[in-house]
Amino acid sequence: MEIDINRIASIGEAVIVRLEGINAARERALAESRQIIRLSANAVRAVHRNEFDVAEELLRQAQELKDALVSHLADYPSIYWSGYVQDAHKEYAEARITLGVIGGRAIPDPAQLGVEDAVYLNGLGEAAGEFRRYCLDAMRRGDLSRAEALLQVMDEIYGLLVSVDYPDAVTGGLRRTTDMVRGVLERTRGDLTLALQQQALTEALGRAETLLREQQRDREGA
């Protein structure tokens, strides 16, 4: 039997070409995922400064990178489904949802963001942490109605997440995110309840002080 020695070399060359393509896709995915995460994080910081137009521009840049990367990885599903690409999509979704809620804009859905459902749900849960931070800032400013509105949003998020009862392999570890949201929600509700009680006490003391001044003036004028 005659063995084609050159066949091994030709197979090896084809394999190497494919591996080179996969490696290049991986390097690009790593670099651009980091950029998407950085842009998304900066957008969230801009939202907390109420710089909504700045946040929108940063997220526009992140979306361009994300969409181009998704298109490039169409031929490399193993890279697309690697953890770091999905993590970048989660951070992008979180930032978009944060801007939508705090910036008074429409809350985007998974299709609008171009992310998987499990990624979206985890991003939604992560956004609850940002809403707590904004709630605390609102309470410090004395804007309790704003804090109450955000607490209601957080409650709705938790209600949705706790209803998603599928294995972590399907939801991308959503149970852990849901547990985090529950803790954030409970702490925020406690903080807001205390702030409302303090506000009510301050108002009551103010009314009592006003009443005492009026009674004093009445006695002096009698």
TrEMBL record:
<keyword id="KW-0175">Coiled coil</keyword>
<protein>
    <submittedName>
        <fullName>Translin</fullName>
    </submittedName>
</protein>
<dbReference type="GO" id="GO:0043565">
    <property type="term" value="F:sequence-specific DNA binding"/>
</dbReference>
<dbReference type="InterPro" id="IPR036081">
    <property type="entry name" value="Translin_sf"/>
</dbReference>
<feature type="coiled-coil region">
    <location>
        <begin position="45"/>
        <end position="75"/>
    </location>
</feature>
